[in-house]
Amino acid sequence: MTIELRPVTENNFVEWRKAVRHGFGQHVHPDDITRLKNDRAELDRLIAAVDTKSERIIATGGADSYSLTVPGGATLPMAGVAYMTTSVTHRRQGVFSEMMSRIHNEARERGDVVSGLWASQSHLYGRFDYGLSVNSYDWEIDPAFGAFSHSPISEEHESDTHLHFVDAEEAAATLPGIYDRMRAQTPGAVDRTSGRWRYELFDEERVRGGASALFFAVCEEVGEQTGYVAYRMRRMGDSDMGTLEVIEQVSVTDTAHASMWRFLLNFDLVGKVIATNRPSDDPLWWMLSDPRRLLRKSHDALWVRLLDIEKALEARAYNADGKLRLGLVSESEPEVSGTYVLEVSDGEGAVKKTTDKPDVVMAPADLSVIYLGASAPGPLVEAGRIDPITTRSLAKLHSMFSTYSAPWCAHYF
Hints:
There is one protein chain. By secondary structure, the protein is an alpha+beta fold. Helix content is about 25%, strand content about 30%. The protein is built from twelve helices and 19 strands. A hairpin with a 5-residue loop joins strand 3 (about 55-70) and strand 4 (about 75-85). The radius of gyration is 23 Å and the shape is globular.
């Protein structure tokens, strides 16, 4: 039996999409195939693995094109790896690794500096030099315990802040601008094309899972739009204490964030508010009078691999000047291994490869963990993942790579 990697074309796209969903144990609606093709997928970034005996697609992969915000506000072209499946009939034959290798090579050829993904299985991607670069929380709270003890909103500013509902058409016109402002100031965030916005806001009844259609509300401060929320209601009847499901809540300012959550925790006939993919350092916990009532479940979000070490390190800003020799050891790509000298002046880094001995040694995956600020280096040292070789190298690594806020990726792909 031979397996061959082939491009996805107009002729095999439907079979490919069915194979993707089959890999996740789902059937796909014909309209959703068209919607993916029109609003999201890039055919020249997709891969079909074909069993040449049966001529059937038995594994799938590919990437979407994104721009990733890094500390300091710069953006880097990113391959958003997705659609990765292998049929249970063809596992452990090397096809998954072969697809990943092709995706990475083609991404470099296109000029992507990083690649990123949301992992369906968290143990898979470390061997391909991906590190957990963004953590998130899922929330649940009874709004009866949603009182605030602290808020960033001053009394004089409160009268200048207003929330109002918008319909789906106005939301489609309004939300992208607010999202882009958030993205520009949030490490770990990625862009959304107009097609991807159509894809995200698709809201036919068959995709709601028995909940309501989407509701939208926007926050305005002195006439400027600074936040939004998209949510659904799940209720059995008019008197039922239902569930408010926050699909996405984005804020540009602290005032907008506090106003939106005061709004969401103030509904009648709601017994539970749930929200997925909240920032790991979201301040709501610190604002609540009884914070233990906010149940938080941590989970991994965006995993990142640095495809071009030098360009990636030079793109982000640093919080301390100095010189540090970073030793990288990669089993999947030995050519990445070596020592990289990082020299930071006025917060800007310059990088070159050297034959000098390193000050600190780690895998590329662990560099990805600290790259966006998901973790300080200390815990990785204690876990045996980072090895500080020279005196004070850990302190220098920490001060250079520290960030003022945790990274967050609001966009799932």
